[in-house]
Specification:
Blueprint lengths: L3 H20 L3 E3 L2 E5 H14 L2 H9 L7 H13 L2 E2 L2 E8 H28 L3
Antiparallel strand pairs: 1-2, 2-4, 3-4
Helix pairs in contact: 1-2, 1-5, 4-5
């Protein structure tokens, strides 16, 4: 079972990511931000390290994934965060409105979804 401290750490990392995207950008214009790819990757690495194995399996397999909103949103979020700026591959081009919605959805639902996914994995001895 996932420790409460791990879930709190995941939420804290996601909030830190949100702060970086909102306030630590290199350039901003009309809802689009340029953020250093290394900053985003550092935080995502920390989030992924704290995620339980059952959640990671759900992200990869996508079996019955529609039951878990945070899994869907996290998958979409990682794709949006991976969009590189065509003039500088060390920068990511981010549409702030979409990303903030996805981050908020993940933060709100990840604890519930982790608990539900782990229950399902325990029931089926996966």
């Amino acid at each position: 079972m996932t420790e409460i401290a791990d879930i709190v750490a995941i939420k804290d990392y996601l909030k830190k990511l949100q702060k970086i995207i909102n306030f630590d950008h290199t350039f901003s214009f009309a809802g689009v931000r340029l953020v250093k790819k290394s900053k985003i990757d550092d935080i995502l690495c920390c989030v992924y390290a704290k995620l339980p194995e059952s959640y990671k399996k759900m992200l990869k397999t996508k079996v019955d994934v529609q039951r878990y909103n945070s899994v869907i949103c996290y998958g979409m979020l990682t794709k949006l965060l991976a969009r590189k700026f065509f003039l500088d591959k060390n920068m990511c081009i981010l549409h702030i409105t979409e990303i903030n919605k996805l981050l908020s959805a993940v933060i709100l639902g990840i604890e519930r979804d982790i608990n539900n996914i782990e229950k399902v994995f325990e029931e089926h001895n996966i």
